[in-house]
Amino acid sequence: MTELHTSRLILRPARPDDAPCFALGVSDFAVARWLTPLPFPFTLAMASDWLRGPPAGHPERALFIVDLPGKGLIGCVALGPELGFWLARTHWGKGLGTEAASAVIDWHFARSNGDAIFSSAHHDNRASLKLKAKLGFVETGRDMRFSHALQHNVAHVLTQLTRESWMAGAERRCA
User: Over the range 94-120, which residues count as b (16 or more CB within 10 Å of their CB) and which as e?
Assistant: First the structure.
């Protein structure tokens, strides 16, 4: 997997030495509550295991650590069966999530024949849903998923971004 660069970020493959910052970032409950598959608290051992390789059943996963030069690891963008991401709370609201996700989406469509990327978010995660809408994701349905951090089922909004929609939006993004 290659390293991706944006105007403000470096997105790179995970390394074992990322585990402490990774664990710290997702151990903030304000972040963890939105990360359906991750337990809370998320320990250093869990982070080490998670970064070591794709989880069982997800060998196609691409994981990019989001580095902000001078700040280090501030988040993660993963692309497997679904696009997922998180940023440390101190970096929310600065457009970094949109920037990082856009780079991964560009990378994915440039290297694959896939026609769509799928994603989902808690029904009340307005920030994530707004970011996905900005990228061109559209709602395709709803379901219930078990949140390990919240320890109960949570309604999820299912979304999809087609290659055609992404390419059409490229003209708007570049303008």
Answer: eebbbebbbbbbebbbeeeeeeebbbb
pTM of the predicted protein model: 0.90
69, two tokens: 């030069």
- In Å, what is the CA distance from 159 to each residue of 70, 118, 121, 149? 34, 6, 8, 22
Determine the Cα–Cα distance for residues 63 and 80; give it in Å rounded to an integer.
8
| Distance, CA of 105 to CA of 92 (rounded, Å) | 20
Domain membership of residue 148 as a residue range: 4-174
- Alpha-carbon span 111 to 46, nearest angstrom: 30
Mean pLDDT, residues 131-144 taken together: 97
The CATH number assigned to the domain holding 59 equals 3.40.630.30
CB 27 within 8 A of CB 41: yes
Q: Among all chains, which residue has been given the structure tokens 């972040």?
A: 31
